[in-house]
Amino acid sequence: MSVKEELNFHLFALISYYTNKVFGIFPFSYNYSARSFQKSIFSVLYSLSVVIFMSYFYPMYCVSFYFQMLNRNFRGTLETYVGIIQSTFEFVVLILTNCVYLYHKNDIVDYLNLKISYGEKIVKLSQKCDGKINFLTMILISILTFIVKLIMDTLLIIFQPIMQETDKKMLFAIYLIPNTVTTLIGCTFCLEVISLQFFAYQINSSLLKIAHCISGLSNINSNAKKMIFCCHLSDKVDELLILHSELNDILLKFNNHQNPVLILYHFNKFVEITIPLFFEYSVLTGSSETTPTLDMYASATLINLIGFFELAITAVFCDKLIKEMERTGRILHEFPVQNADDRLKESINKFSLQILQEKRPIIVCGMYRVDNSLLYIMTSSITSYLILLIQFHIEGI
């Protein structure tokens, strides 16, 4: 793998960094000459100003504006209060997310710099980048999901009949900014997970090459050549052991500072998907002053599907990372150790023992794992709360 190939991944990380920085999420700076992230008092002050502005702007201007808009478009009070709860929750999540990044800024800087230096070690590991197209495809899926979601949210504000008679600037502030930040957080999480999976994949590819070399040891007739070759392979295994251990440490650092962010993200996605579905039901049953149209339902349904797809790829990509880390143990278990000498066997056994002692699942504050099982939990929770809101609506609460 060439340095140029590796830099493609770093480029996407920088794009993510500067996009997040616009919203005050990353309170640190990037030094191009040193190719590292650094603490920055100006970035911290900018993030603090965003938090202070949001804390003042929402209660002073947004609550009354949103309340009037909902009252004008819905006949019942339930829809109004549910909408206010959604908007309030999304703004609180936005403010808390910025606060979390401010609190963990030093940990995040250490993690990002550690990942950059680790990526340079992976570059030296092999001259060929295995699986590059697959990982670039995953990255593009994450970025395109963010772009499509942003475009659809913007079109919804511009063309939805329920929003056409409302101040667009306020709608962009109330609706678009929180949704954009939430989607951006999910996209950033996916990009980080993909890069970590890429590192694990390179380690596993190197282990498979070593396993192939060990299989060919039986064809070497000279004991001296065989011993030298085994020593070389043993050194390679030891090097991969160190890299795998460092990758596990990086993953743990990533998990630690992402814990509160993921809680906020998943709760926000739950609200972002559930309540618009309830509003669609209210419009369908005639509780809205707006006449329902096919275009209205199509656009709203598409946005909900994109939102759920966004949630799905965070879980699926995270699950793929964990499975890639677990694949290392299976590869080592299938090593043809009968062809290896004692030193090589010792290196392989040491690697296997280290893997048994590692904890790899990304668990959010001991509450749930970020993997495919999360999709079932979120789907069932969204369905349950949507049914509850519909029951309240039917009973006229």
Automatic annotation (TrEMBL):
Bilayer topology: Multi-pass membrane protein
**Claim: Ubl conjugation is one of the keywords in the record:** no
Gene Ontology biological-process entries: chemosensory behavior; male courtship behavior; sensory perception of taste; signal transduction
**Localization (cell):** Cell membrane
Q: Which Pfam families match?
A: 7tm_7
The protein's superkingdom reads Eukaryota
Record GO cellular component, one term: neuronal cell body
* TM regions (residue ranges): 7-28, 40-59, 80-103, 135-159, 171-199, 296-318, 374-394
Does this entry carry the keyword RNA-binding? no
Q: Which UniProt keywords apply?
A: Cell membrane, Membrane, Receptor, Transducer, Transmembrane, Transmembrane helix
According to its UniProt entry, what is the function of this protein? Gustatory receptor which mediates acceptance or avoidance behavior, depending on its substrates.
**Record-stated family:** Belongs to the insect chemoreceptor superfamily. Gustatory receptor (GR) family.
* Protein name, as recorded: Gustatory receptor
What organism does this protein naturally occur in? Phlebotomus papatasi
